[in-house]
From TrEMBL:
Family assignment from sequence similarity: Belongs to the TRAFAC class TrmE-Era-EngA-EngB-Septin-like GTPase superfamily. EngA (Der) GTPase family.
Known partners and oligomeric status: Associates with the 50S ribosomal subunit.
SMART domains (UniProt xref): AAA
Annotated protein name in UniProt: GTPase Der
Protein's job: GTPase that plays an essential role in the late steps of ribosome biogenesis.
Alphabetized Pfam families for the sequence: KH_dom-like, MMR_HSR1
Domain of life: Bacteria
HAMAP family membership: GTPase_Der (MF_00195)
Length: 454
């Protein structure tokens, strides 16, 4: 059974995201003194008493305004309520009861979802009692709370837990974390919605629609995935401090936490300089990667060779991630969207893969026999003693040599190519560390260096 879901509901700027951060014990939801920062519904795991559950943060609800994203925010909030077993209705205790709170309360009374009222921004216990009193007329179980300090949240959560179903002891299986990364308006949110089969993220031609990182859990062929849609990442010089700045930071954190990153690129525009920088960031973080060329349906006059020509261009522009698979999709029509999962699972497996020391040394022996290490001026030649995998995620191999300075970039690329030819590691970067001879143990083992076959 899935975990119980608790929806956080309220009008804009009452502190919903601050409460989400406090309950989830993370600083992930963007908190900024500006209405409308949160737009999509975002899921965070939480724990209270003896229960695990999911918190859903939603955008601020306004019913008398149809501008920009507000109708779509209401749609996302209704979806959150439809799957919730309880809701926390957040109001601003410092501002007091407003007409917008009354309208929202009447709407919640018609939703048939148990509601606990949290009067937020009651940092002082003494003032909290007076701040809460005027909200009793709304007819909910009411608590004075502080999202900043955590005051009163324990009592509110006790009320929320009373509406949970019976505890399920099922243990969650390990899931593959997938981050969806790209420039603004390349179709990241549309791709997430195509995978989910619902409007999980708000899609708009307006740049910067997605701000927070949006989680979606799906299952394919018995494998569980957690996909994270992120804010579009523009060039740093165009980004101002505010919601977009925080959204981009969340995107970078999503890359760091992911097993596999989907780098979404606009197929019509091709690989841009910013796409190259994002691919470089993924490589730097050591994440597995799949390049998703989206909006393939918008390419006109395609023939048998069109995809091959685009593939060559992608490989040329992203030559430093040639190990990454490339798929041409259309989030609008759903073309090849499911094929992405055929690539994610193997890439995650290779990202976590471990190889025995004996296999690595067989590969090194073969590589050295075909191409001996370079000889420096003065007749000093590089020697590889042995190699061993030291970590995974990404696979990292340490090569112990007499002197790293005797191995130039050309020979180092040759060794990496031979390792990939033998072991694959498709979809994931690998790291190779060249370690010099520093201990007596290595000195004694020098005669065991990999010998060159004549």
């Amino acid at each position: 059974m899935p975990l119980p879901v608790v929806a956080i509901i309220g009008r804009p700027n009452v502190g919903k995201s601050a409460i989400v951060n406090r309950l989830a014990k993370v600083q992930e939801a963007i908190v900024y003194d500006q209405p409308g920062v949160t737009r999509d519904r975002t899921y965070k795991p939480a724990f209270w008493s003896d229960r695990d559950f999911m918190i859903v943060d939603t955008g601020g609800l306004v019913f008398d305004d149809e501008t920009e994203f507000l109708p779509l925010i209401r749609e996302q909030a209704m979806m959150a309520l439809s799957e919730a077993c309880a809701a926390i209705f957040v109001v601003d205790g410092q501002e007091g009861l407003t007409e917008a709170d009354r309208v929202l309360s009447d709407w919640l009374h018609r939703q048939h979802v148990p509601v606990v009222l949290a009067v937020n921004k009651c940092e002082s216990l003494t003032q909290g009692y007076s701040q809460v009193s005027e909200f009793y007329e709304l007819g909910w179980d009411t608590h004075a709370v502080s999202g900043i300090h955590g005051n009163g949240l324990a009592e509110a959560l006790d009320d929320v837990l009373s509406h949970f179903p019976e505890k399920d002891e099922e243990v969650e299986e390990e899931e593959i974390r997938v981050a969806i990364i790209g420039r603004p308006n390349v179709g990241k949110s549309s791709l997430l919605n195509a995978i989910a089969g619902e409007n999980r993220s708000i899609v708009s031609p307006i740049s910067g629609t997605t701000r927070d990182a949006i989680d979606l859990k799906v299952e394919r062929n018995g494998i569980k995935y957690r996909l994270v849609d992120t804010a579009g990442i523009r060039k740093k010089k165009y980004v101002q401090y505010g919601p977009e700045f925080f959204g981009i930071n969340r995107a970078f954190k999503a890359i760091d936490r992911a097993d596999v990153v989907l780098l979404v690129i606009d197929a019509v525009e091709g690989v841009t300089d910013q796409d190259q920088k994002l691919a470089g960031r993924i490589l730097e973080e050591g994440r597995a990667c799949i390049v998703v060329m989206n909006k393939w349906d918008a390419i006109e006059e395609k023939d048998t060779y069109t995809m091959l020509e685009h593939m060559k261009q992608v490989k040329a522009r992203l030559h430093f991630t040639e190990w990454a698979d490339v798929v041409f999709t259309s989030a609008v029509s759903g073309q090849r969207v499911e094929k992405i999962f055929d690539m994610i699972a193997p890439a995650a497996e290779q990202h976590r893969r471990r190889v025995s020391t004996s296999v690595i040394n067989e590969i090194l022996e073969d590589a050295v026999s075909w191409h001996t290490p370079p000889t420096m001026k003065g007749g000093k030649q590089g020697r590889i003693y042995y190699g061993t995998q030291v970590s995974s995620r990404p696979p990292s191999i340490a090569l112990f040599v007499n002197s790293p300075d005797r191995f130039g970039d050309t020979y180092r690329r040759y060794i990496e190519r031979k390792i990939r030819e033998s072991l694959g590691f498709q979809g994931t970067p690998i790291r190779i560390f060249w370690r010099g001879k520093k201990t007596r143990e290595l000195d004694r083992g020098a005669n065991k260096a990999i010998k060159v076959k004549s």
